[in-house]
Amino acid sequence: MKHLNTFLFTMTASTCFFFAGRMVIGSAGADVRPLAKSLGSATINQCRLTGRIESRTNGVYAVFDFDNQTAEEKNIKLNYVAARTPPISPHSRMMSMPQTVKKGALECIVKAGKTTEEILLKETPSAPPVSSKEDAKPDGTATGVTARLEMLTTPEMWSLVVSREEIKGLHGWGAVGPAASDAAISLDKGEALLASTMTEKPEK
After folding, report:
1. FRET partner for 32 with CA separation of 20 to 30 A, picked from 8, 25, 110, 121?
2. Is the distance from CB of 84 to CB of 101 less than 8 angstroms?
3. Strand, coil or helix: what is 181?
4. Which residues have C-beta within 8 Å of that of residue 198, sequence separation ≥ 6?
5. What is the spatial distance between Cα 159 and Cα 128, in angstroms, rounded to a whole number?
6. pLDDT for 54-95, tens place per residue?
7. What's the predicted TM-score (pTM) here?
8. What are phi and psi of 93, to 5 degrees?
């Protein structure tokens, strides 16, 4: 009986150390996770504009990249709306509606060359501290249930819409999307879907 208890203890400890090692390795990875990739480029005041949304350790950011190929500084003013569609179960009868994360205006001076402007869309709440040994115990059942739930839900969708004019509501979903090519659309009129979450196609 003692040998059985010793064997079970050794296996449990080895398993815990294995998963702890994986967690430590995972935490040392890249701090930036892309949420919405650029769909192409748009032109505003003779500057080329691309955008993306990315998650970092301290929050979610909208990143605007300007390329001014003239020798003059350009005054840029544009409006933006960042929206998120929460994940839902594929068996759900209700469609998940997009929610505005942040909307506002961006004003900046773009010098000759490349310029990047970042806007904090929302902060990442800090994780609550572990208060007791019971809280520190790994719950394999809870982890398994969470993993299965994540597999059964659709991924969250992010979008970044820009315009010279004020963007009212989320009708930017019907905006003209820039083609992912060298041809850029103009922001002289209307809105443009600058970045969106791209779903990966399964490999054949």
Report:
1. 110
2. yes
3. coil
4. 37
5. 29
6. 999 999 999 999 999 999 999 999 999 999 998 877 666 677
7. 0.68
8. -85, -15
